[in-house]
Amino acid sequence: MRTITLRRSLVALFAAAISFGAITHAQAETLRIGYQKYGTLVLLKSSGALEKRLAEKGIEVQWTEFPAGPQLLEGLNVGSIDFGTTGETPPVFAQAAGADLLYVAFEPPAPLSEAILLPKDSPITSVAELKGKKVALNKGSNVHYLLVRALEEAGLSITDITPVYLPPADARAAFERGSVDAWVIWDPFQAAAEQQLQARTLRDGQGLVSNHQFYLAARPFAEKHPEVVVALVDEIRKTGEWTRANVDEVTAQVAPLLGLSPEITRAAVERQSYGAQLITPEVASAQQKIADTFSDLKLIPKRLSIAEVIWRQPAKVAQAQ
């Protein structure tokens, strides 16, 4: 009886080992991408170009939608995705929280794609007048840095206002009912508020912030599959080039996905930037400035080194392209 039980245990262990091996193998052959409702990755997803290219390498692609950058990077941190895109600030908060991520690529600046908005009948005319006011924003998102810089420009600090941390949908609701005095937001929510609510722009990012979009990867995946990362960035770049040359077609394709009018969608598409490329020293330096700013304000618990989390394309991969 003991022998039979032992044999059954060994069989169960063997089966479990086979199952574990199959899971590990499957994970190695799957690229899991996190995306948001709007952006170049949405167009890449709909085109199927990446799936076709990676199928030749025996790699499948899985897509998961996230409401904003901080949530997306939490998914990357816990291992549910391998790659994704966010604005400038979420990676700083994620790195400070210990996420094992790498900056892979970036899009050119898009400073008009985020802004501090006011209700159409607001008496406020300058950022300085936000002192003591309630300002809605998504904590840790790209607009967090825009708000900090705009307040600094006006001689204020984040402590001079009352931040109301809300995700975009809740922030818009608070903005509409007058529960907050201003809303810091990005496209396409920004374009929608401008056209649907006649929201006024108090300050956008022009001359103040770059508002880069970053593409990030989990370090283990990027180090194990550098050729996949290179192929992915290449397809993102191609999609961006096509988008820039086909604004009407992109607008018609994206508007139904967003549930927004073509007019709103086109405004957002035209303000976005295109042309993904690997991280440059200048962009890394700009991102370091953002990290230092949040550290100085005690919004993150420690100083960070952005240089330590920049992905470097291996020479052998570059030669193979």
From TrEMBL:
Single GO cellular component term: periplasmic space
Compartment list: Periplasm
Main location class: periplasm
Keywords associated with the record: Signal, Transport
CDD domains recorded: PBP2_SsuA
The Solute-binding protein family 3/N-terminal domain, residue ranges: 30-250
Annotated signal sequence range: 1-28
One of the record's GO molecular function terms: ATPase-coupled transmembrane transporter activity
Parts forming coiled coils: none
SUPFAM superfamilies: Periplasmic binding protein-like II (SSF53850)
Keyword Endoplasmic reticulum: no
Its job: Part of a binding-protein-dependent transport system for aliphatic sulfonates. Putative binding protein.
PANTHER family linked: ALIPHATIC SULFONATES-BINDING PROTEIN-RELATED (PTHR30024:SF42)
Family: Belongs to the bacterial solute-binding protein SsuA/TauA family.
Protein name, UniProt field: Putative aliphatic sulfonates-binding protein
Biological source species: Ectopseudomonas alcaliphila
